[in-house]
């Protein structure tokens, strides 16, 4: 493939064309090209060389790595952008963060960082000379070295180059509340096909030109993915232009395969973009303009694997998918490949780029900025450096008063909403806390926050609208992917936030949270990466209360998903009531470098604990609720009723009441679990309990009936190593559900109070004879409830109309 | 909100405007409106009434359901489309399938189906008269009744109205290889914000106008989601028009809130769309045109909750988000709400719509088609009716010859590729098998299929491209969501397919597979729903072999995710070699109503089993590999080495070799697990083993060292009920990884042969004294390998250079 050599003017209909392509003085042009050539040389060198980095000797097979790994195809394009962003930063004295969407091109980003000296600042043993270059080359994709992609180890990055789709939402997240920051976001034409990326184009309807920074998307069309042409690269330019205008952008097109012409056109396009961005920001900030701006965007078309081998073994490689990874694969065995590699590497004329000691020559570095402005050194990419403690309100101000357990009810998330309102108000000036959610803030009963801030919205507003706010800090879009991407970008640049989501649909971001957990697992081991605020999920509208929706909205499996991941990162909390939710919220908002999953209901829920009790319970993570049990302090209980989650807790306490009434001699212990990882062994999770602690709560041989919020086998997976495990019997969600009443749901899944009493009768040995009658009585109660519900379409009031008398 | 009453012309720049709005004769117009009024009445009736369905008596509180559930807001729009699709079907004698993206509007789709008689055909007790109407109303969102959303229970649907985002990809999947079918696809403006939906707009670059049917997207902008305006509804019409043109469509705009005007405009827009579609198909089919067509699309703007209460309690409701669910919430308690409800219901003039027996009057049914053409009766929505057995090739033709175990190696997925090539060839005429994947068919080594068919592609083609084919049946787009949506749509309409995907990134569709499993779980219990072909995943490029990519590409947790779901639906297979993969493929392609997850490597893998052995092993799902063990037939083994997955099998067999050499007196049994659910108890999964079967394989008290492909605790979760469980020790992936060598990966996660030998020494009691020396020897070997890998950047050849001598 060969593109037309000349940079194209902007597409028909564009109101903006880049300025004349010869605006760049020749010496600057040549210096830019030298930087680019150096970066290309360094990228190819990382993929191939383990010795002879400056090609001082003729290339021999033993200089070449035995395993050739990495992605060359995208690297020249990323290098080009790196070169030109350097120029923009230097010329404009601006803070720029770059999101490298095609992060598979790790060699490119590493090359740029090595050239600007930020790599050596981060890793002093990789010096900016021949010895350091040798290390840079050898370590790449080498055992014990650095990963093939842009990764946490890469200075200047907040974006792993693994799974694709999140570049643009990360970029917007980083730009929010950073008014002086320009976030350049390179989007590959492969990534552009993904759903998360496609959704995130509309982020510009949420970007406040007053308080937020700017995002400059650079859509890089190199034409191919692994083995296929990319869809956007094969649209007629007019059609692509319509698409991007329809996304609210002003596209500026740069195309070509003649380096100097492309340098000129790209420099002009970037200058034009910055001019437009400055005009937009000035209009909004100084002149109070309220029109949604049309932000610029650059479409950059250059060949895949540009400057690499044009042909290998008679097949075209440069400009095709064949250059995606390693264009010459047989270098050690195939003399012709070796020769081609040497020709390719020497085509960059390394002797002109590096001095005898391997240091980049001055003209190579002419475009490179200094200090923290370097792309590899910006503190925005190491957000912990910028993080401030949140001004968290005192919990007691919002706690529910509790005279006795189970006498009153509150909507836990509504109580939390009041607390969050104060937090929103307290951060109104600092603007470093955001709430995100897929159009569910009110549905999840957090609407009190609108007392302090509105919903970010830059699109049209009508009189009937409520709480829309050009400067709001609640972010709502019906895309869990975009919500997650925004929040990740916000956290990674040193701010705080909370994601409220329907429990079932948080699975949409399973894959995203995997990547974020992996990111945190690695950054925690890198001393130069400073801790960032945790990614906090509030999962509500949960499996047991999907009255309007039914089976499709019932899935408690996110907990299982997250608990498979790095234990140093993941935490799961199941607060049983409003006050405990407040305590958990306080805890997770203070934590760092974690992914916290909090599951709490939005429906009225009995209050069990006073604020003080809740705080203590939350600190322990698990505890005996003595007031709920009937065990004599001097002997072991006959049975342990355990619970985790609001609805299971309610059913367990109702079961305890029934046992107190019907089997008064039975010694019952009630244990509530807030912090699910407590059930794991101490050596498997930092929150895990020792065996002694576990046994003291659950006993070593008594039956334990455990009512759990989610899939019951998860509890077995956590507790299987315990001595008492053979006595553990778990009830939970078994994928049985439809649109029905709350009590019908627990009955359907055998989690109801009556079933729990039957479980006790079935499992406690040596019960009095009348236990059989009690069991039958419970069976009858289930039948009676079932029939009543089927006839009347609602639960018998008695399932909520009781108060705790223990 | 009030939209301008007149239907707008197409947007500026449109080359097509609908024909004059008065083309519809008045009697037809009135009949359409009568049908729409009836449907609206029935939708509202379902949400509110449990008695007095025809309002023969004044409305009293006891006629109203105690729990008011459902989504009114979207229903009038869906009803409008249902009415008009009826007309189109009847007028054009076409097969139409409708995908109701806003499936929360269950009452609407049920209303339409009841009106056209297909509901009664499916559920004879819900007759098309007053008694049936009473049932229809009462059952909706009622315990023991039908779900609130469009669901498997809904005749005419292949698309659950729960999680949003998949309407358009489902529609395209349904249209593929159904040349005579028109798939209308209603997309809500909420759903349009999701990533999966946004990505799926580009499906039109893959739709073959010759062999595929047509998709007519109807973007329904009612302006609001749960609590927010929708983004697309707040774009200026010109900008929205650009966006949709950029997506390759020709938008036809219909807007208004005056029913008769909207009826006229919508009828004209549909007629125009059909005319365009017919022209496109004629051009491609009869005239051999090869230009990618610009398919029509309808943008329909009508008020949310149209015809419902305009105001409630002084706040605007119709045309706002407040009509999203139940516009009048307090009907039983609030006399004013009750009065408003009665007014609202009577506003449809039910007495004009239904006769005294509650039967729809003739003019209401004038637009309704007959027989299988009815939207609620089309066999395309009950794909099992159309399903044919696949012509599967004989396995032996493609099997790897195996003289002795472990002497040769094959790439399992490449062997499967050959088999799939024949299957592709055998279905060339029938066109009922497709392979989908996110740009990975060749990367996953299945490229042999290109010998039989190419990659579907309607966009521009260049000379360098390979295997692109306007009529191809391999579908590649870099969107796992779109791949999954296409395949689901294809399967649900009665065809077959396979999804090949990188193991780590299949988590992108966690949420989609949840919904599909739920769908199948319900349809399996509906006698009128005929079984469909299973959804088959081939997960490759798996956790142990991510040489080019590293940590971000390592995640074996999809297995855990799927095994949480309905056991009657889910199956997981881990074939240890190429021949077993062939047998598993044969099995899953024959199966029905399942989600099958097959994990297999693409790298060269030792051949262990002959085709006959593989077939027998696959049929059992788990078995002792006697040739690999050293147990004396007359006594129990000292230790069981179990394995599941290709890499773990290799390490276990190497461990068995080491034990044979170093501890020759030890009686070792090797057990391989192909079908993971076999480990579950029989009562928890249809494939589960009885305790007797399990004990016969794994013993009741001997140590079992289990090398597993994924997260080790999953094996405990499956086996915790077994007597021998305390002796079970599992090795697997522990989230330790980076870009490194294959053997370094297994060492890092303690899954390597040396570690397994050490595990044996640590766990088998009463070993000879020299076992300690053997253990040290293994420890030394690990150290030696580690150092060699760090120095040389590759594995010592000995980890692959051995042959099985047992």
Automatic annotation (TrEMBL), chains A, B:
Q: Domain named Xylulose 5-phosphate/Fructose 6-phosphate phosphoketolase C-terminal: which ranges? A: 602-804
Key word Membrane present: no
Family note:
Belongs to the XFP family.
Looking up NCBIfam families in the UniProt record yields:
PRK05261.1-2, PRK05261.1-4, PRK05261.1-6
| The keyword Ligase is annotated on this UniProt entry | no
Q: Where is the composition biased (Low complexity)?
A: 1-16
Q: Which cofactor does it need?
A: thiamine diphosphate
Protein name (database record) = Probable phosphoketolase
Region feature (Disordered): 1-26
The residues covered by the Xylulose 5-phosphate/Fructose 6-phosphate phosphoketolase N-terminal domain are 26-385
**InterPro entries this protein is in?**
Phosphoketolase, THDP-binding, Transketo_C/PFOR_II, Xul5P/Fru6P_PKetolase, Xul5P/Fru6P_PKetolase_C, Xul5P/Fru6P_PKetolase_CS, Xul5P/Fru6P_PKetolase_N, Xul5P/Fru6P_PKetolase_ThDP_BS
Q: Say which species the protein is native to.
A: Streptomyces chengmaiensis
| Top-level EC class as recorded in UniProt | lyase
* Documented EC number(s): 4.1.2.-
> Which keywords does this chain's UniProt record carry?
Lyase, Thiamine pyrophosphate
